[in-house]
Amino acid sequence: MAQVGYGAARLYGYSNSRVKAMESKMLNKEFLKDIYKTDDMKVILAKLLQTDYKPYIEEFGDINEREELLDFALRRSLAKTAEKVIAITPKEQRDIIIRIVSKWDLYNIKLVLSAKANGKSFDSISKYIVSSENVSARVIKEAMAEANIEYAVGKLVLSTPYRQILDVALDTYRKTGNITLVNAEIDKTFFSLLGGAIYRLSRLSYESAMVVKLDIEMRNVRTLLRAKKYGIKSSEVSNLLITNGITTVESLVSTFDGAKDMRDLVGGIKSFDLKEALAAYESNKFRQMLAFEIAMRNKIFEKVMSTLKHSVLSFGTIVAYFYLKEIEIFALRVIIKGKMYGLSEEEINGMIRWAM
Fold it and tell me: Which of 190, 238, 244, 270 is the most exposed place for a label (fewest CB within 10 A)?
């Protein structure tokens, strides 16, 4: 049950004060507007070097020569944020927060498995590693030195806390030999474990539980949209969906089956308003899915802000902060990639309107 009164102050006083301190260092809307109006990537980089992102950018050396490495610096920042959030969470609830923030460790695991499957060396991926306490660069280097994927997975099982996820990954690889399917199963297992924490989380903070459910829902809706786009069968789709989102798996499959095309599917989704995103998707000749993800993150952002507003001395404050930081980095990545690919201010603003 959620703590109240003196119990809440004793349990969450330190962690919530740390969260407020970290939240005060986040980028404000004026800063985001400033860099999205800046066309020169070197100027954007100089501005970011005046923020808390400085040490993560400097880790990559002369980033001016490879602007795309800025994306990995931002991911590294989020991985360190995850470590800080875990450290300040009361021990009794640390296992829950670990489930929420560990998705960035899985990025490293998938990076290793994809590299091994394609015969790449550690040196070829070293600059793309988002090192953390649980999956460090040293552990990755040792896994990459193994003779094959099976041995690499064995090394990761021994050196990280993700045995359950890795066992599923290895089983999928042995059955299919398809690294894309392996990575999909890693994601599915992670979100399944995350969904398993919903009941305990809801007793600590109902608002936080709803944020996590929306996160799972976004993943499920994204799966449906991609499946409809690429003509994947319903039977295959149902195996990729995760329980404990906003909508039951059965209802999602029914919506998918009843939709003859993308427009039909969007109309049947009730958890997110995707009408504007559909218009953006249809007007883009490349039919990019990013518009849908942006619309869904907008809903999550609103929920996170509501959680922070109403959470005082609670577990919800910790959860909301991590999602807020994740959203900030997502906005930065959209701006930077938009600049790199020559998108106009109007196009970039349309993608992150909720952050501006």
Answer: 270
